[in-house]
Amino acid sequence: MLTSAVDPVYSSDFAALIAPLPAPVAELTARLVALVAAHPGLSGKVMSGWRSVNFRHAGAGHVCSVFAQADRVSLYFEHGRLLAHGDGLLAGDGLKKGRYLRLVPGDDIPVDRIGILLSEAIALFA
């Protein structure tokens, strides 16, 4: 399990997940995973079959996932439709309950807004 901001960089499962990706996408993925993993109360697990890192909270259950693809990285919020602070940042209006933030290499990671969304997502069910 990933439990700190440092673990994703050294996890062999995580290394295998990002190994086939172009270096800029792998770096962006590592930065985003480290940011989410550092949020209080979240623990992450590499899901090789899904090509993602899924994050859970003891009280709120599955909160979000980071999906790495060849050209982008997505932060998917399981109950993103319910998040009040996702307007203008999260996409996926056609999805039943989830919403996502899509980033490409060179994008600034909206650290503060992601922190707010993580806290809000946890508070929904904790």
From TrEMBL:
Protein name per the record: DUF1801 domain-containing protein
Originating species: Devosia ginsengisoli
SUPFAM superfamilies reported in the protein's UniProt record: YdhG-like
